[in-house]
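Two entries, shown back to back:
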Amino acid sequence: MTVRGIPVALDIGNSAVKACVSKQSLGRKIERETSDWITKSFAIGPQHGDWGRDASIVTDLLGWLRPLCNDREVAFWVSTVNRSISEPVRVELEQQLGKGVWNELTYQDVPLHIDVQFPKRVGIDRLLSAHAATRHLPRGAVVVDSGSAVTIDLVTPAGELGGDPIFHGGAIMPGVRMQHAALAGGTENLPRTAPPNDSTAVSSDSMQQPFSAPARETEAAIRLGVLSAISGAIERLAGDYSAFAANRMGSHEIGVSGGGKIAVVISGGDAELISRDLRISHIVKHNLVCQGILDLAGRKSLDSASPL
């Protein structure tokens, strides 16, 4: 079946629905847009599964898309790790736009050899980020996605045997906001603090600077601890993954730098925040999940197109 319409990526996570359109697919110049991608995030309320509180997402999404796409037909290509939101969004979009508008991706759609015990259980967002990263870094990468959770994964080239790049799995840890909330919820005396780039954070020029250690007051100590935990995990695992990849693949086949580390790429909502605290070389690439979605949408549209 041929999928028609401008491809729109939907990355449905635990805290937001992110929509993304490539400027190229619109076929016109968009003023004030410097990126190749046009994105918009729609926040999900704190009570997961309460669709009544989040029902405006579809209205807001279509209200953003219609003028952007000049009311042309669209097709949604979807990555979801949050069924309590994605299912009502799908139903509402199909009621308004018709069947066939929703194309949900699974692990079987991603051109990776998934070298883990249970491939079906791997979050589709992790696989799409890894796939997109291989397009930027074909010799392999440590792929960090910093959302509600932080995932730190390894992807390497196929090697001498050829085939798809290899997703080796990785690590999962609580994200910045989840760690802040856990400390406040699990203790009596620690305050609920906001990450330094959060709109509710205390306004201070010092919040935009690297944190000094040791911290001299409680809120700064929490922020220092949370960011140090995440950045420290990335730095340690980048070294461990590099050693694993070099041993398994040979350092000549992967992108191991002079310091013996494979390339590190960071994406997700807290990428810039974490980047400021990292002490290893790395690249920030925004919208990796959406880039992966739109790449697969393009491939599938070509595969399903009728011959001329």
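entry 2 starts here
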Amino acid sequence: MKVLVTGGAGFIGSHTVDKLIEEGNDVIVIDNLSTGNISNVNYKAVFYNEDIRDEALNNIFESERPEYVIHLASQSDPLKSIEFPLYDSQININGTINLLECCVRNDVKKIVFASSISIYGNPKKLPICETDEKNPITQYGLSKLTAENYIKLYSKLYGLQYTILRYANVYGEREQQRDYTGAIPIFIKKLLQKDVPKIFNDGNETRDYIYVKDVVEANILSILMGNNEEINIGSGRQLKTMELYSIITHMIGVKAETVFDNSTMYKIQHIILNINKARRLLGWEPKHSIVDGLINTIGYYKMYLNM
């Protein structure tokens, strides 16, 4: 297969590219390196330093003629979307529309889209099923939901097949650490550096954490399966923030104090995804426990920080 991966220099994208190449596929990577890193890009991939919003994107499609697209490029920080909503929409909505136009013009067979649990907002019941109410509480969640709707519209109008994957909280090697989102990289990096990370709110919020290599497997399975479906991708398990913090401190071997911070605007109490549809349509099941994934992730950050 010939697969084009947007955001292929980023966290999830670079792991996806590695696996596609390992399985013998031809891979084209498009990334503007705003958050991705060229060192993440597999040397066997064809790389273009390009923005998905640019008109020049179609030239790449005309030249490379990909059969399938995995669309991972996005503005993915919920808090940044609150501060810079126009920037968020330009990438997540306008960029997706530009990509869809390229797909239709160049006879792409299917697009796999990385959506997010953020489209659900604060759920009324748990675990969340794909058909449950979508009520995003950030511009990021709204832009992802809007992109989903554009993808479904293009499928109806032009016959472009799709699979929409709604990721839970993805973690693992190569994840970019941000100041306020992404508890796992923040906790690990701060603790390794003998610093004290802040725990937002009271630490009793729960999240559904899924290891990046499990997400990669779902991405690749979706190329040929799950046509025209929206599918949750998570662990199907809840973990409190304080429990996560305790696990990481134990694994690193430190005793750290606890500092709470109630300043964040982004407050979702509990999240857990129902992943039965992924099991049924993709034959997918997460293979890594939280401990397995954290062992690999901590090892990566120790190497990254030269520790």
